[in-house]
Design brief:
Layout lengths: L10 H24 L9 H36 L6 E2 L2 E2 L2 H20 L12 H18 L1
Antiparallel strand pairs: 1-2
Helix pairs in contact: 1-2, 2-3
């Protein structure tokens, strides 16, 4: 897992992310051992990339997506004339909204640069995630 993503997050959120990552990593390793024929398209060196993408996906779902939702919600409420919106214990000021929105846009810009979008990280089961990776790999092969 890429710990640099989460080192400055609150400890409770950081621990949730680490726990989810470890659980998903165990699922991944179990699946690869149990069904090697089904995942033969996944080369040995790809497994580390998959783990990296998995950590990115968890970061996206636990950090970026909620921030994005908070920004969208606050902007809608502000348009209705409701000032002083608080999300959790944080009061979202116009300055906060700009910073948060910029962070979300930067993350999405990085994803787009490498051919990803948020839907790539939309999965419930590790099998779905592996299917997303397979489709991405096939697309890259086709476009090359």
């Amino acid at each position: 897992m890429v710990l640099s993503f989460i080192e400055n997050l609150p400890s409770e959120l950081r621990n949730q992310i680490i726990s989810e990552y470890k659980s998903r990593e165990r699922e991944l390793e179990y699946l690869l051992k149990r069904k090697p024929d089904k995942y033969q398209w996944l080369e040995d060196e790809d497994v580390e990339v998959v783990k990296y993408l998995l950590s990115l996906g968890i970061f996206y779902r636990r950090v970026i997506d909620p921030i994005s939702g908070s920004v969208e919600f606050t902007n809608r409420v502000n348009r209705l004339g409701v000032p002083n919106v608080k999300v959790g214990s944080i009061k979202l000021t116009p300055e906060n909204l700009i910073e948060l929105s910029s962070a979300v846009q930067e993350f999405e810009r990085i994803l787009n640069r490498f051919g990803f979008n948020a839907r790539f990280f939309d999965f419930d089961r590790i099998e779905e995630f592996l299917q997303n990776i397979k489709e991405l790999k096939e697309r890259d092969k086709y476009e090359s």
